[in-house]
Amino acid sequence: MKNLIFEAGRNIAIKIPVDVYEDTLSFYRDILLMDTEEVAVTDAWIQRSTKVNFGTIVLWLDGVPSAEPSTVYLEIQTNQLELALPYLRTNKVRIPAVPERLPTDAHWIQDPAGTVLLLRSISVEPTHGAP
């Protein structure tokens, strides 16, 4: 599509089983010595969430009771969200059902290998609420 742009976002989220959340957080915070910040959770699907400064990336560690095994979610941004979804559907890109609530300017998509991506508008500041 003319002028439609996709680019990597700054956010990566790891949905982690709750029983290994503390060990995973300790790995990044205490062993790799990365800066971390616990964030208030507003989604019932996520029990705990920590923001990890991972270089130029924001890594979100999300404790999820139903996450077995851990799952990585990537963020991708587009300049024309309203054109991107029909374009992706035309190209048979899967739009999975994920229980996490999303803002109105975001949608889930999935690559052929099963990796879930959060599709957002480029103009949106990276925040948690989804990777």
Protein described:
This protein has a single domain (6-121), classed as 2,3-Dihydroxybiphenyl 1,2-Dioxygenase, domain 1 (Roll). The protein is built from two helices and seven strands, in the order βαββββαββ. The protein has 131 residues and is of the alpha/beta class. The model has no long low-confidence stretch (mean pLDDT 88). It has helices at residues 21-31, 81-90, and strands at 6-17, 36-39, 48-54, 57-64, 71-78, 106-110, 116-121. Strand 6 and strand 7 form a beta hairpin.
For the secondary structure, the number of strands is 7
CATH superfamily: 2,3-Dihydroxybiphenyl 1,2-Dioxygenase, domain 1
Lateral arrangement of strands in the main beta sheet: 2-3-4-1-5-7-6
| CATH class placement | Alpha Beta
Class derived from helix and strand content:
alpha/beta
User: H/E element string?
Assistant: EHEEEEHEE
Low-pLDDT segments, ≥5 res:
none
- CATH fold label: 2,3-Dihydroxybiphenyl 1,2-Dioxygenase, domain 1
* Largest sheet, strands/sense/barrel: 7 strands, mixed
Q: How many domains is the backbone divided into?
A: 1
Mean pLDDT: 88
Total helices: the number is 2
In terms of DSSP E residues, the strand content is 35-45%
* Helix content percent band: 10-25%
- The end-to-end distance, rounded to whole angstroms, is 26 Å
CATH architecture: Roll
Compute the CA-based radius of gyration.
Answer: 15 Å
Shape estimate: globular
